[in-house]
Amino acid sequence: MAVDQSFVGRTYPPEGVYEVSAEKVREFASAVAGAGSATALGGPLATADVPAVHTDAAAARALGHADVVAPPTFAVVLAQRSDARFLADPAAGVDFSRVVHGEQSFTHHRPVVVGDRLVTTLHVDGVRVAAGNAIVTTRNEIATESGEPVCTATSVLVVRAPEAPAPRTQEEGA
To answer: Which of 6, 116, 141, 142 is most solvent-facing, going by the fewest CB within 10 Å?
Structure first.
């Protein structure tokens, strides 16, 4: 089944609130910084290699923020949760086993900070076919519960075309 192009223009309203916690930001910041992973010199990076603005409320406040600031790419956590609503919609015709993440961009309206209560509205902005693959563009508008814009996250997903069956050999009765 091919991705249904009639989904272009479809909007999925917010489903629930995502609460940004210090632990979620710390885990994400550590993962992005590679803390705990091996360096070129063979030793692990320490949590100290994560910028303090992502782990220390006092450091974040000293820079004028209300609390710990999430790394700019933290918004992907919300965007991918939201994209999953389209990907899991049986009517959309997406075979998730064939999905490859092609591109991601963020337009930040303000930083994501600990204590934010965020909601995400998903827009399916495009579905086109190239070389048999479906190229899907989604846009997630992330805002506070009260409607303050926080980030626009745009994703391009590639739904790879089904592989052609292998030619039959003589042993298989070709």
So the answer is: 6
Following DSSP, what letter does each residue of 30-55 receive, concatenated?
HHHHTBTSB-TTSSBBPGGGS-GGGT
Distance CA 102, CA 136 (A): 9
Beta strand segments in the chain, E: 11-12, 18-19, 99-108, 117-130, 133-144, 149-159
Helices first, then strands: H and E counts in the chain: 3, 6
Beta strands in 58-116 (DSSP E): 99-108
Dmax over CA atoms of the chain, in Å, equals 74
Q: What is d(CA 59, CA 76) in angstroms, rounded to the nearest whole number?
A: 24
Express each pLDDT in 30-89 by its tens digit.
888 765 544 444 454 445 578 889 989 999 999 999 999 999 999 999 999 999 999 999
Question: How is residue 158 annotated by DSSP?
Answer: E
Task: State the Cα–Cα distance between residues 88 and 104, nearest whole angstrom.
Answer: 19
List CB contacts of 166: < 8 A, sequence separation 6 or more. Answer: none
CB contact set of 12 (below 8 Å; sequence gap of 6+): 82, 85, 86, 121, 122, 123
